[in-house]
Write a structure and sequence with these properties.
Layout lengths: L6 H7 L11 H20 L4 H6 L1 E2 L11 H4 L7 H22 L1 H26 L4 E2 L3 H14 L4 E4 L3 E4 H15 L14 H16 L30 H28 L6 H20 L1
Antiparallel strand pairs: 1-2, 3-4
Helix pairs in contact: 2-5, 5-6, 5-7, 5-10, 6-7, 6-9, 7-8, 7-9, 8-9, 10-11
Amino acid sequence: MGIYDRDYYRDDDLRPIRPWDNSSAVTMLIVANLAVFVANFLLTSRSNGVNNLLMLQASDLLDPLHWPRFLSYAFVHSGMRHILFNMLGLYFLGQGVESKYGKWEFFRFYLIAGILCGLLWSAVRVGTGTGGALLGASGATTAVAMLFVFSFPRSTLHLYGVVPVKAWVLGVIIIGTNVLGTQSGVTESGAPQVAFDVHLMGAAFAAIYFYGQLNFSFFEGLSGGAKLKFKQRRSGLKVHRPSDDDATDSLLAKDEAESDRILEKILREGKDSLTKKEAAFMQQYSRKVRERRAQQ
């Protein structure tokens, strides 16, 4: 069966056309975050009414009426610096991750990361009795950054647009600064000013997703897809030929090397710089990755 006969290909390309289908998931998420930020500034800038309505309180874990906040808090930011830092990270690193895993899988990964970080944070606060409030996309964006690191550890990034470093070095910096941050930055109430623990939760989620080879395609409803589909495994014998494995491994290695090259180009020059051939390759490569994950 060819790649274009697979279920995931039909799901991604033959779903009804919607206004957001031509936009990347990264763009959609940035627009959503900016919309909430602007709404809070224009409508309730003095009282922070929008932020207060959407941010997560530790006690919300015990109140089902407030459970939607486990998602909404990730679209709320306290100030310009807060949202700028998160959205820049999402823009520069999210494009590479989305190109590899696909638009809707990336979208699902981001939302689930935000929800799980909120749940774990709230559970810890309730368990320790510290309370507090949580807002911001930092948990989800840290998950995206670390998934980029795990997926493309040898890619070269430019810190502050100047200092070239390998992606794995950025990963070490992210983990190191947040581990150190958990030991400082404490307010008088005992709650940290910056949710370093939430950042580490996002990093842990990315590690579990990558090394556990997870796939959230069964949540098609989150991406505007049709009904959930359950795949049935085919029975029967399969002849194993070592030579086939060698050939497959060689092709996979070539594809991975080519995807790394294209993703570095995206980081340097942006997604619009890709040729039609490169864009088609990345679409096909992301589908192959999702197919392998779904079969495992």
